[in-house]
């Protein structure tokens, strides 16, 4: 019989979070960002759960878009990294995929191809990862017009570097740059808003917003949690308690003997570790929960196990379910203790942890 370490995915919570994104987007429409295997939740299941709500999906690359098509879904899919080779344009055209073009190389592939999918242009407004600088757009548009592909252009995309910090002035600078850069083409769509932008006062989201982490219940803002923003946790990571034992004052627990008991107490071992994607750097005092009661980790996380302090829950027994993150212990809390972000925790869960999907009719898959 397999161990019962599992990630439960609440699809109703996902739908709630998408609906909240739409409400906060105002007049903008929200394309659901389901890249990185639906942020670790399962791209096919996540996309299907949003199929009657989301008019468009966004992913990083072609293989993720193909997973959506394999799930039987027909909404347009935006490829945020564009295409990685010229031959991908044929599939984009055939499957209604919308690549975001960001380089001269990609422009050459498009203008020299007989395949003409609809597409977007990436504008570099200051993040300096991908995209054309504002001063290059006139030349890019002329090049597209000369090649006869300009009618396929849907609009412009940019990405905000510091929207997670409401006090950063960079978001306003990028927004202003984007507005000025795209002003000569007012009939084309514009997309700027990531999850964090949905929560910034008076932040314009233009025509299409791109909610990502907020769909899964994680906070897109520094110094805020998902529940504080009205988001529901979608994933509950659980593992069974393997054993319990008394640890004596002066005894250590785990690799490196880094945690030593200051007094007699009760501890237990939980069947999850960094081999499952639980963060190795989540050390002593990282929260967990049993039966809705918070407990804490002690010592170093191992590949397959971690230790918890059970002194405050004397009734805990082997086989009890331990929540590593979920409704009692927020994923943002665990991420902070591990010195990372919720994005990494969710996407980092390995295939060793099966996903169980809670359906809207109350059943499970």
Automatic annotation (TrEMBL):
<feature type="binding site">
    <location>
        <position position="303"/>
    </location>
    <ligand>
        <name>substrate</name>
    </ligand>
</feature>
<dbReference type="InterPro" id="IPR001608">
    <property type="entry name" value="Ala_racemase_N"/>
</dbReference>
<comment type="function">
    <text>Catalyzes the interconversion of L-alanine and D-alanine. May also act on other amino acids.</text>
</comment>
<dbReference type="GO" id="GO:0008784">
    <property type="term" value="F:alanine racemase activity"/>
</dbReference>
<keyword id="KW-0413">Isomerase</keyword>
<protein>
    <recommendedName>
        <fullName>Alanine racemase</fullName>
        <ecNumber>5.1.1.1</ecNumber>
    </recommendedName>
</protein>
<dbReference type="Pfam" id="PF00842">
    <property type="entry name" value="Ala_racemase_C"/>
</dbReference>
<dbReference type="GO" id="GO:0030170">
    <property type="term" value="F:pyridoxal phosphate binding"/>
</dbReference>
<dbReference type="InterPro" id="IPR020622">
    <property type="entry name" value="Ala_racemase_pyridoxalP-BS"/>
</dbReference>
<dbReference type="InterPro" id="IPR009006">
    <property type="entry name" value="Ala_racemase/Decarboxylase_C"/>
</dbReference>
<comment type="pathway">
    <text>Amino-acid biosynthesis; D-alanine biosynthesis; D-alanine from L-alanine: step 1/1.</text>
</comment>
<feature type="domain" description="Alanine racemase C-terminal">
    <location>
        <begin position="234"/>
        <end position="358"/>
    </location>
</feature>
<dbReference type="GO" id="GO:0030632">
    <property type="term" value="P:D-alanine biosynthetic process"/>
</dbReference>
<dbReference type="GO" id="GO:0005829">
    <property type="term" value="C:cytosol"/>
</dbReference>
<dbReference type="InterPro" id="IPR011079">
    <property type="entry name" value="Ala_racemase_C"/>
</dbReference>
<keyword id="KW-0663">Pyridoxal phosphate</keyword>
<feature type="binding site">
    <location>
        <position position="129"/>
    </location>
    <ligand>
        <name>substrate</name>
    </ligand>
</feature>
<feature type="active site" description="Proton acceptor; specific for L-alanine">
    <location>
        <position position="255"/>
    </location>
</feature>
<feature type="active site" description="Proton acceptor; specific for D-alanine">
    <location>
        <position position="35"/>
    </location>
</feature>
<comment type="similarity">
    <text>Belongs to the alanine racemase family.</text>
</comment>
<dbReference type="InterPro" id="IPR029066">
    <property type="entry name" value="PLP-binding_barrel"/>
</dbReference>
<dbReference type="Pfam" id="PF01168">
    <property type="entry name" value="Ala_racemase_N"/>
</dbReference>
<feature type="modified residue" description="N6-(pyridoxal phosphate)lysine">
    <location>
        <position position="35"/>
    </location>
</feature>
<dbReference type="InterPro" id="IPR000821">
    <property type="entry name" value="Ala_racemase"/>
</dbReference>
């Amino acid at each position: 019989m397999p161990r019962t370490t599992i990630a439960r995915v609440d699809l109703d919570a996902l739908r709630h979070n998408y609906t909240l994104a739409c409400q906060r987007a105002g007049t903008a429409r929200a394309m659901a960002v389901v890249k990185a295997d639906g942020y670790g939740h399962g791209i096919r299941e996540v996309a299907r759960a949003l199929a009657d709500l989301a008019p468009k999906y966004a992913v990083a690359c072609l293989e993720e878009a193909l997973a959506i098509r394999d799930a039987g879904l027909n909404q347009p899919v935006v490829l945020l990294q564009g295409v990685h080779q010229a031959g991908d344009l044929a599939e984009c055209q055939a499957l209604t995929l919308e690549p975001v073009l960001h380089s001269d190389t990609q422009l050459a592939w498009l203008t020299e191809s007989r395949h003409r999918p609809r597409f977007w242009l990436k504008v570099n407004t200051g993040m300096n990862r991908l995209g054309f600088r504002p001063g290059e757009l006139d030349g890019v548009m002329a090049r597209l017009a000369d090649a006869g592909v300009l009618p396929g252009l849907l609009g412009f995309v940019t990405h905000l570097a510091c929207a997670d910090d409401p006090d950063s002035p960079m978001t306003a600078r990028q927004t202003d740059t984007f507005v000025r850069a795209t002003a000569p083409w007012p009939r084309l769509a514009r997309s700027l808003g990531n999850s964090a932008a949905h929560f910034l006062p008076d932040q314009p989201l233009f025509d299409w917003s791109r909610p990502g982490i907020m769909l899964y219940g994680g906070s897109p803002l520094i110094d805020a949690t998902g529940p504080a923003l009205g988001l529901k946790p979608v994933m509950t990571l659980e593992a069974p308690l393997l054993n319990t034992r008394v640890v004596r004052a002066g005894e250590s627990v785990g690799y490196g003997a880094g945690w030593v008991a200051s007094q007699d107490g009760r501890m237990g071992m939980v069947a999850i570790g960094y081999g499952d994607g639980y963060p190795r750097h989540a050390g002593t005092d990282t929260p967990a929960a049993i039966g809705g009661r918070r407990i804490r980790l002690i010592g170093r996380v191992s590949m397959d196990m971690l230790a918890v302090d059970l002194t405050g829950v004397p009734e805990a027994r082997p086989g009890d379910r331990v929540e590593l993150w979920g409704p009692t212990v927020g994923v943002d809390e665990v991420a902070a203790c591990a010195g990372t972000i919720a994005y990494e925790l969710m996407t980092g869960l390995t295939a060793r942890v099966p996903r169980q999907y809670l359906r809207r009719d109350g059943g499970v898959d």
